[in-house]
Amino acid sequence: MTTQKSPRSPQAGTPSLLRAINDRAALELLLANGPLSRTQIGSLTGLSKPTASQLLARLEAAGLVVPVGTTAGGPGPNAQLYQVNPAAGYVAGLDVTSTTVRVAVADITGVTLAEHQVSCKGWPAATTVERVAEAVAGTVRRAQLPAGSLREAVIGIGGAPDPVTGKLRYASHLPGWHSPRLLEELAAAIGAPVSIENDVNLAAVAEQSVGAAAGCEDFVLLWAEEGIGAAIVLAGRLHRGFTGGAGEVGYMPVPGAPVSLNSRRKHSGGFQDLAGEPAVLALARAHGLRGADATQAVAAALDAPEGEAFLAELAERLAVGLAVIASVVDPELVVLSGGTPTAGGERLRELVQQALGRMSIPRPEVRLSALPGSPVLAGALQRALASSRDALFSTR
């Protein structure tokens, strides 16, 4: 005879767990709303005044919040205001291409303290780790912080780390970034934990956090510049795929482009041959337009009599690839990012929206990137901040 165990009753949260939950809620409110008083924190969290006072005392003792003045102009005595302590931690974000390394350093509240850019043309592969660390150290100095101040660094790069081996894939154009111990070497040289993420994925992180996709849980970001790439966000989370290669759409077979039978050869068919930079420049020349790169050619089209026909054909090409992606993913939103669509502005966006509506059953809204500067750098900072806040704000 067997006896069945009765199911356990749900356990109430321990006091330390409840304190940690309340502390995290208060810190998130302070990040979102700026300086708040004890009364305001209590009102927004539902905590009593004594509990809110204990919470603030605990966070101030931990160095996570600081007093920043008092309220004024209201009835009764002025109340002390608190904000998240900017000096509680610092992070770095990097945007790495085949020609440049951009670095930004931010405090834990998300305020960027310094940015720096160095050329990496001609770097010997063996010196990559050393020179990246030098660029980061230089940016830390520009932020007037001492060495060793960083809690984390996130690097955006035109490839994808294999989730099993950690080796960088899809990045043959980046010599010096393929060591099996790359992360360990970078962490030791920079003096902080390092993670690497696909650059287009980070652009999507930035758009979802503070850009055109804020509040959207199902969207695709299409990046068009020298190459073509995409990031896919489903149910609010990045979809990386089994090998980390989700969104590597450059070689995706599309109508109007040759099918790639050798995906190891650069620019060998697929969507890249239809809408990558070499194809955009060739299309521009066919319409009598010139530019040193795709961005210049597209920008010139906005003011040229022959530019409208060029933009319309470019929009058709971009929409062909987007129609393939939309038919599989069915996103709520498409965000156009990278130099090519950004240079085309609202007119190119409008033409892509129209073309996509003609050729696709799913008809997601098309928006332009809403971020100034490098979306990849912004996404790297957002990812580093999220990870560092998770660690710092765990007060149990």
Automatic annotation (TrEMBL):
* InterPro entries in alphabetical order: ArsR-like_HTH, ATPase_NBD, HTH_MarR-typ, ROK, WH-like_DNA-bd_sf, WH_DNA-bd_sf
The record's Pfam families line, in alphabetical order, gives: MarR_2, ROK
Q: Any signal peptide, and if so, which residues?
A: none
Highest taxon in the source lineage: Bacteria
* GO MF annotations, alphabetized: DNA-binding transcription factor activity
Instruction: Name it.
Output: ROK family transcriptional regulator
Residue intervals of the HTH marR-type domain: 26-66
Per the record, the similarity remark reads: Belongs to the ROK (NagC/XylR) family.
